[in-house]
């Protein structure tokens, strides 16, 4: 049985919308947790895990960056965090559209 890839695409779209504002990413990670628990497809499971890790690493870097803004290094960390988010978004979404795992093992 082939499962729909639509929820994974929607989750990536929400991550893309979260670049200017963080709220859509919260919805995306909740979707990823819910659909990851429901899937038997290893490919989709890997993409949902990729999205969940992207959220948590992004959150950690944002907290560190915000905490260090008084030292001005925080702005660099926040900028690099956005680049990291963009990288994870582009790689994950592209590889999903190619029906490949987000990372080659």
| Percent helix range | over 70%
Total beta strands: 0
Overall average pLDDT:
91
- Oligomeric state as shown: single chain
Count the domains: 1
N-to-C order of helices and strands: HHHH
Note the overall shape.
elongated
Report on the structure:
The chain has one domain. It is 75% helix and 0% strand. The longest helix is centred in the middle third of the chain and has 26 residues. The model has no long low-confidence stretch (mean pLDDT 91).
Defining key terms:
about 100 residues; mainly alpha; 4 helices; transmembrane; transmembrane helix
Helix-strand blueprint:
Blueprint: H1 6-17, H2 23-38, H3 42-67, H4 73-97
Produce a short descriptive summary.
The protein has helices spanning 6-17, 23-38, 42-67, 73-97. It is mainly α.
